[in-house]
Amino acid sequence: ELGSVQWPCNEKAPEGTPIMHIGGFVRGKGKFIITEYIATDERTGPRFPLLLTTGRILSQYNVGAQTRRTENVVWHAEDRLEIHPHDAEQRGVRDGDWVRLKSRAGETTLRALLTDRVAPGVVYTTFHHPDTQANVITTEFSDWATNCPEYKVTAVQISPSNGPSDWQKAYDEQARHSRRIAPVVEAAE
């Protein structure tokens, strides 16, 4: 009858409440529960000596499905693999080079960004651009309490690459094909 109304909607406020919490919160300010720390099963080693962590960047939202369609791409045109200069030098990688990023779960390629923002032994990338598929290389592990995937802890190795992988090239072609605009056909007179 009224359309959308603001909760709580009850006997005291049958048409809803303009402000949800006035004077306090129903359950207090929040319910915090201490959970036992359980370490990840993911480990670095000789084959995968670096630790990958993934994250977001301010100019993009989540996987970027909406924000990549805006002018925000001027601030973040592609996902880059941030690597400490020492780790890059050991692997023959220069700033801007294509690198293969490989884990026990999979592999992808992206351009390197040499920076001391990451510690030696750690690499970082965002996951806003679908052609990178950064989550392809993350593990299947998840947190026991929340079931959130372990996107922050993946053992990896990087090596120089000649460019995008075959599946990335196929993805790019498919994406271009799906975004094409059909040519206008002149009507017969």
Explain the layout of strands and helices:
Blueprint: E1 50-55, E2 80-83, H1 85-91, E3 98-103, E4 107-114, E5 122-126, E6 154-160, H2 166-178
Parallel strand pairs: 1-5, 2-4
Antiparallel strand pairs: 1-6, 2-5, 3-4, 3-6
Describe the structure.
By secondary structure, the chain is an alpha/beta fold. It has helices at 85-91, 166-178, and strands at 50-55, 80-83, 98-103, 107-114, 122-126, 154-160. It has a domain at 50-178: Barwin-like endoglucanases (Beta Barrel). It contains two helices and six strands, in the order ββαββββα. A six-stranded mixed barrel has the order 1-5-2-4-3-6. The mean pLDDT is 83.
Q: Mind telling me the CATH class of the domain at 50-178?
A: Mainly Beta
CATH topology of the domain at 50-178: Barwin-like endoglucanases
Query: End-to-end distance, in Å?
Result: 55 Å
Mean pLDDT: 83
Order of helices and strands: EEHEEEEH
Backbone CA Rg:
23 Å
SS-based class: alpha/beta
